[in-house]
Structure formats: structure tokens, C-alpha cells
Amino acid sequence: MTYVIAEPCVDVMDRACVSVCPVDCIHDEPGVDRTLYIDPDECIDCGACEPECPVNAIFTEDSLPAEWTKYTEINALWYSDKDAARKLVDAAKPA
User: Fold this and answer.
1) d(Cα 22, Cα 95) in Å, to the nearest integer?
2) Helix or strand run (H / E) with residue 53
3) Which residue among 8, 35, 58, 91 has its CA within the 20 to 30 Å range from the CA of 14?
């Protein structure tokens, strides 16, 4: 199990979660991305990020609301194909 950043982060991108992550597994490309992404291979499931998110966008995979399950794939995809992940974010929540 890993943590996932879901739709409430899109276009908000508060970075409080980044500063508390002990393994630096939350990333984005500033000025390009509309959301932050958690690397599922690096996340150690510590949960430090979840309470820091002011918009409640971070969930464990098991507690991710059904309407946002696509963000599990989007978070993982960003680490192998950033453009494809960005297109999925745009489709999920048009600007």
C-alpha cells in the first residue's frame, strides 16, 4: 500500500506535504504540473504527508474515494511518462 495524491491537489499544490516527507517521494515540475505526485516505489507508508495537506488530497490506496481511484494510476505513471500523466490530470479535471 502507498499514499496517493488525488484531485483536491489539482491547481492548489500546497507543498506542506513535501517538506515533511522523510524519503523525498513527492514531486512535480514547477510551472508545468498542476498537481503533486507520490512515487509508489519510494513511499514508505509513514503517513507524515497526510495530516499536512490543507485540502485533504492525500489518501492511502485503501481509503481513496471511488471517484478518485484513477489518481493511483496517475501518480505512478508520472514517474515513467510525465506527459501521459499530465494528460490524465487534464482529462480528470479540465483547467
Assistant:
1) 32
2) none
3) 91
- Segment-wise mean pLDDT, segments of 10 residues, the chain, 95 residues: 94 97 97 97 96 97 96 97 98 93
| pLDDT for the residue numbered 66 | 97
d(CA 5, CA 74): 9
Instruction: Give me the DSSP letters along 2-45.
Output: -EEE-GGGTTT--THHHHH-TT--EE--TTT-SS-EE-TTT---
Count CA atoms within 13 Å of residue 10 on its CB side: 18
User: Which residue from 3, 1, 95 is spatially nearest to 49, judged by alpha carbons?
Assistant: 3
- Write down the pTM of the prediction: 0.95
